[in-house]
Structure formats: structure tokens, C-alpha cells
Amino acid sequence: MTIEARERRQPWILLSPALTAVVLLLVVPLLFIVVYSFWLRSAAGADTPGFHLDNWQKVLSDRFYRDILLNTLKIAAITTAVCAVMGYPAAYFIARSKGNKLILLVLLMLPFWISYIIRTMSWINILGISGALNSLLLTLGIISEPIQMLYNEVTVILGLVHFLLPFMVLNIYVSLEGIDTNLEDAANSLGATRWQSFLQVTLPLSLPGLAAGGLLCFVLGAGTYITPVILGGPRDAMFANLVFEAIIRQLNWPLGSALSLALLAVLGALVLIYNRYLGMAQLAKGLG
Amino acid sequence: MSAVTLTDIVKRFGDFTAVHRMSLEIPQGSFVTLLGPSGCGKTTTLRMIAGLLDPSEGDISIGGKRVNDVPIHRRNLGLVFQNYALFPHRTVADNVAFGLRYRNVGKDEIQRRVAAALDLVQLPDLGGRYPKELSGGQQQRVALARAIVIEPDVLLLDEPLSALDANLREDMRVELKKIQQRIGVTTVFVTHDQTEALAMSDRIIVMSKGRVEQTGAPEEVYNTPASEFVATFLGASNILSATCTGIDGDIVALDLPDLPPLSVPRDRAPRIGGAGPARLVIRAEKLDVLPDDAAPDDRYAVAGSVETVDYQGQSARYFLRVGRHSLQAINMIDTHPLPIGASVSVRFRARDCAALPSEPRT
What we know:
The complex is a heterodimer.
Chain A: H1 3-36, E1 40-41, E2 47-48, H2 54-61, H3 63-96, H4 101-109, H5 116-127, H6 132-140, H7 153-177, H8 181-189, H9 194-222, H10 226-231, H11 239-249, H12 253-277, H13 281-287
Helix pairs in contact in A: 2-12, 3-7, 3-9, 5-7, 7-9, 7-13, 8-9, 9-12, 11-12
Chain B: E1 2-13, E2 16-27, E3 31-35, H1 42-50, E4 57-62, E5 65-66, E6 77-80, H2 92-97, H3 107-120, H4 136-148, E7 154-158, H5 166-183, E8 186-191, H6 194-200, E9 203-208, E10 211-216, H7 218-223, H8 228-233, E11 237-248, E12 251-256, E13 259-265, E14 276-283, E15 288-291, E16 300-311, E17 315-322, E18 325-332, E19 343-348, E20 353-357
Parallel strand pairs in B: 3-8, 3-9, 6-7, 7-8
Antiparallel strand pairs in B: 1-2, 1-4, 4-5, 9-10, 11-12, 11-14, 12-13, 14-20, 15-19, 16-17, 16-19, 17-18
Helix pairs in contact in B: 3-4
């Protein structure tokens, strides 16, 4: 075999274990889901194979699903915006700090060592009826009765921000690290104040990182299922909760399949738009 | 009038003193070079003039005005970096126009001045390109245009040629000097490259370990080094230990171990105070290596032999043994260098040497 032919084959050999896993564990089950979404659930509980558009018709025409989808996208969008506003200064601080960068990055990653569910539930101890904040306010005499702060849209967003902020910070940090600090010095020397050179030079050059962080936060936020269950009220269900409801509670796999594919399509379209304008390379940078 | 004045500048980073007490006057319109090896404090000094670093002590004045508390964006300086530091998300024309946008310059005027600046650096047609579409040399020209278009009071150049490859560097060196002379801007140039310093400067400030070793015109620094450091950092020098036996009018008499005594003109030994230990500095290119049967002339001559030859095309560098001294000589050659092992007569003139007081070894 020529060296060239061997070099052409090598990437595929190296990729094959991962590729096998992805095909068997992701692509094949996804195809099952696609097939399932065209089946029907009979009253008796047994699913009827076939090619029926009933589930899809229901998903696409029922206002109930549409409203929850819009609400899900809204919560994801607010979460992403909050993460961006909170995350940018933090990322900037880490990128520009000298010496202790590694410690700051480890601190940023530290929450990942604790289960996401535990982290989410910790808010109950803080905001619950007998939680830390209510106890404090009662002790200080600011309130006389505990306030119900949990189980609404705000706490869902709070939980999501708590979960997603590190992803945003990391992505912005990576793009800020890639910017030559001489650029800001050059802009300053030409007459721009620090704030002006930030707006004119650093911010535009870090937008790819901001966009990558935004995409991650939005996709993970829109697909979340745990946070509204733990921190949301009955009216705060998100789209993933509908899938759970259909599949686990109602045992309606065909409907659940159609619902999950609908969410996949919406988020997939978003990823495609992102890829069209910014490319996936930036995302890979932020994850590494 | 001095365009830039440093008065008793000190810069410390924690326990480390990067620049020891330093004073400096840079005349209006002159080209002054801070020359020294890395870590000598030259870039730190430049960054203090730029306002990117605050001096720990001392005053910095630009155009007669103290600027210690003036932030960089109000100092009106042109800054050029080794890595060009062009804004990658903006076109060449936008890069050059950047500084003008903060100076209340009208749109048409901006366009006119950007075009003039790009003309000056000989890139008239590249305004619409992005920096990454240009070669390194072109990028550095854009950086220069961006720095001078604002008509800065002082142009600060931080190793601007070091990232370019050898041939381009020499071209840019000539061109940079030409542009500087045409617009007459006071320029502070930082480099570790002695050739650049000698070729471009009106004045060279040789620095080592945060201290100024010597300040002077290029020929002065080259011909009459003030210290062993300067002698070895600029060009190849032979340094021999000697003893000054006395000063007689315009003549400084030196005894050399193993070699005949030598008299150096007073102006080549300005720092010798009187009899005592001294150093004799002979530039490698001032040593003439002749076959040992060459006719004697009026020059100082000693017999030696060739140990190693470093052939360089139009010239050769000889490593010679003369008694117990190792000397090096750089000579122009016609065809072949002298062979290794050849017995030679090594000749030089006393007025091409320089004498220094012996420095205490630290």
C-alpha cells in the first residue's frame, strides 16, 4: 500500500471506535424514533405499526404544544441572554488576569464535579419556605411570614443560568485568549479610551466565542427537562417535559417520538443557521 | 528642544528592577535607538514613554509637558509593534483610519489622509484588503501608516523589523529611515539588532541589565565603546587586558603582556584617567591578516597563526593564535582565504584601537 493510501485511511481507522458508538447509540435509535413517530397508539395500549400522520398533525396543529414550544424557546433565550451578560465580564476578568488563571478556570469547572440534579436541588435549600433566604429575612424582621419564592419561571431561569453559565464563560474566555493584547494597546495609542477600544476591537473579535457560548446555552437550555421539574411550577413545563409526559406517563411512544423530533428539528435548524454564519470550528474550540 | 525627556526614571516589578535610574533627552526630529539584549529594559522604557507602563519613579515629558498622569490615548503617539497588531476584522483602510476617527477629522479628510499614508508606505491599492491577505512586510507597512497618519508627536517602534525575514528586513530598514526623514517625526526605536541600530539611528542608547551603558552617535558608540559590554555587543571585538603606563599629552601608553607596547591616541581612550589596569579593544575588521612574508609597513605587527577559518563569501573570519592570545579578524578576501595553520603577520593601527579602564569583575 502506498504511503498516500495509508494516510487516507488512517483518520477512518482512528475514528472507527467513536463512529461505531455514534452510529449504534445515536443514529440507529434516532431512526427508530423517526419510524415510531408514524405509528399509532391504539386504545388497548399496543402500538400499531404503519405510516400515519396523526401524531405529526397533532404536534403541528395543537396550540397547546405550540405555546409550550414558544415558552421553551423564550426561557432558553432569556437564560442565554442572562448568561451572556453575566458571563462576559467574568470571562474577560479570567482572560486578562495574570498568574492565577489556572485556579480561576478550575473554580469555574468545579461545579461540574457535582451532579447537575444536586446542584439544581440546592436552590430549594436556599429559596424554599424554610430555606436560607426566608430564614434570614424572618430573623431580620423584614418579613413576618415565609414567602413562596420557588416554583415559577424565574426560578427555572435561575436554575438554568446556574447550570449553563460555565459553558458561556468558557467559550468567551477561549475567544478572548486568542486576541492579541497588543491590539488594545494599539487602539489606545491611536486615541481610543479603554472602553472605546473594547467596543471597537475586543468585543467584535470575541463575538464568535459569544455566539458559540450562546448556541450551547440555548440548545442545552431549550432541551432541559430536570430544571422545570425541580424548580418550576405546574405551569412552567418545558417541551422536554411534554416528551417525558407522553412517553413515560401516557406510554404513548409514537406521540412522544413526534414531539421529540419536533424539538430536534427546531434546535437543529438553529445549529445549521449558526454553522452557516460562524462555522462549527469555533464551537469545537470552546469545548476543548 | 527635546521632544521626549526622561528624568530619573526607575521601573520596578516587585523585587526586580527592570530599569535603573535613567535620564534621557531625545531631540526633536531625531531617530534614537534603544539597543540591547533581551531583558535589558529597552522595551520597558519604550512602554513607559508610550504610557503602557507607569514608571515607579521619575518624570516623563513629551514636548516639554509632563505626561506621567496623561493616559496613553491622550499622548498622541504612534506605536508600531513587532507582530504588527493590525485589527484583523477591519480593512487596511479602516485600520489606517482608526486613529483619525478619534481626532475630529471629517470624512473626506480621513479618506485623503489614509490614501496619502498608504502612498507613503507604497501600498496605494491595498486599502480594501484585510490584514490576513497581506504578507508580513505589507502588514508592517500598514502598521506604520496607521501610526504616522495621526501625525504623532513621537513615533515608537518596538522591534518592528524582527518578525520579517532577512532580505525584507534590510529593505524595510532603508525605507523606514527614509519615511522617518521625510516626515521628520521624532522616533524611538527599540531593537536588539546592532546592524539596524547602526544603520538607522542618529543616536544609540546601549542598554544592559536595566542601565544605560553608553549614549552616542553610531560611529562614536562603534569606534569608542564606553565599556566592554558595548565593545562586545556591537560588532566583533578583541579585548586584551593591558596596563596603562602613563598619559603623555595626546598619547596613552599601554603595556600588553607578551606583546610589544602600544600607544593609543587620547581621544580613543577618553575614560582612562591615568596609569593602572586597562583593556585594549580592537575591532575584528581592523585586524589585517597578511602572509608572514608580506613587506613590513608602518603598522603595529605581530606574528601568529590561523587556527580556524569561517568563510563568508566576500569576507572571511579568522580565528588566530598570537602568543597566548586568541584573536579574531574579519577581512575582505579576493579569492581564497588563508589556509588553516598558515603563519601570518597580524597588523593594525594604534588609532583604530580603543582603550578602556579595567572594570571590576562582578
